[in-house]
Amino acid sequence: MRFLTVTLNPAIDLVGVTEILRIGDVNSIKTLSQHPAGKGINVAQVLRKLDVQVTATGFLGWENVGVFQQLFQENQISDEFIYLDGQTRTNIKITSAGDTTDLNFTGFQVSPEQWALLCERSQDWHERFDCVLICGSLPQGVSAEMFAEWCHELTRQGVHWVLDTSKAALKLAVAAKPILIKPNSEELQVLAGNSKLTTIEEQCRLAKKICQEYTQYVLLSGGEKGAYLISRHNDEIYHAVLPCKKVISTTGAGDSLLASFIAYFLDKHSDIEVALKHAVVIATLVVESSGIDWQSDEVKKRLPFVQSSHFLLNY
């Protein structure tokens, strides 16, 4: 299959770890990695590691584009980014006591003309790609309303697209009917009108309603609780979890979960349960490392230890 990832607001991630993070004090941080990132770019990396052909697009700043171009060349990712004046932002991710604190900075400003260029380029995506994965936050200059209008246009054109974003962009764009969304519990709460969803049953019940109204699948990431797959086509809720040996950094784990599920489910034609188990293993391996990296033999070793189940909701 032919895949396209869209990263509208990429970043260079500076990832570090400390035993205790003290706000308002001097902290000693051990640097784990500094690498080009952004949700769609992370997804593209994982797809390539799973031997899936992928093209990447979105916006990048000219001044520090070299690290991104090197990543694309090394991973054989086709580059169709639109290059803007200025720098792509740097984000800081600090893991402490198993939790990751994100310091996400604002990046470049996308002009109306540059946004119009991306919209124009997207008009042939339904012919060129079997699946488009739109991932991450919106850059300055692109409102949630503009984004949602564009997503509606993709659906009208017949694009099969996946959505992984948050806040107002998620709330408005889900109505454009992507084939799959990948929220975590906080993002799902936005779709509930910020109502508190205290149990996994409540979260899955809302996800089932979203499937009935807007999308075919909800891939719900639950952190250490694993992942849940809710489908419009099946009343059962699928769950998979793999105990984590040690949390090094959660950066990129959700992107790895999404990309590996899509790769196994759509490209490798695995059934839902098999695809979900592989996705949970790969996401866990990413948490146990300091970047998007794992060995295929390690996936095979850990698969038998995945705890998987499926259940029906009580209404």
TrEMBL record:
<keyword id="KW-0547">Nucleotide-binding</keyword>
<keyword id="KW-0418">Kinase</keyword>
<dbReference type="GO" id="GO:0005829">
    <property type="term" value="C:cytosol"/>
</dbReference>
<keyword id="KW-0808">Transferase</keyword>
<comment type="similarity">
    <text>Belongs to the carbohydrate kinase PfkB family.</text>
</comment>
<dbReference type="InterPro" id="IPR017583">
    <property type="entry name" value="Tagatose/fructose_Pkinase"/>
</dbReference>
<protein>
    <recommendedName>
        <fullName>Phosphofructokinase</fullName>
    </recommendedName>
</protein>
<dbReference type="GO" id="GO:0016052">
    <property type="term" value="P:carbohydrate catabolic process"/>
</dbReference>
<dbReference type="Pfam" id="PF00294">
    <property type="entry name" value="PfkB"/>
</dbReference>
<dbReference type="InterPro" id="IPR011611">
    <property type="entry name" value="PfkB_dom"/>
</dbReference>
<feature type="domain" description="Carbohydrate kinase PfkB">
    <location>
        <begin position="12"/>
        <end position="291"/>
    </location>
</feature>
<dbReference type="GO" id="GO:0008443">
    <property type="term" value="F:phosphofructokinase activity"/>
</dbReference>
<keyword id="KW-0067">ATP-binding</keyword>
<dbReference type="GO" id="GO:0005524">
    <property type="term" value="F:ATP binding"/>
</dbReference>
<dbReference type="InterPro" id="IPR029056">
    <property type="entry name" value="Ribokinase-like"/>
</dbReference>
<dbReference type="GO" id="GO:0044281">
    <property type="term" value="P:small molecule metabolic process"/>
</dbReference>
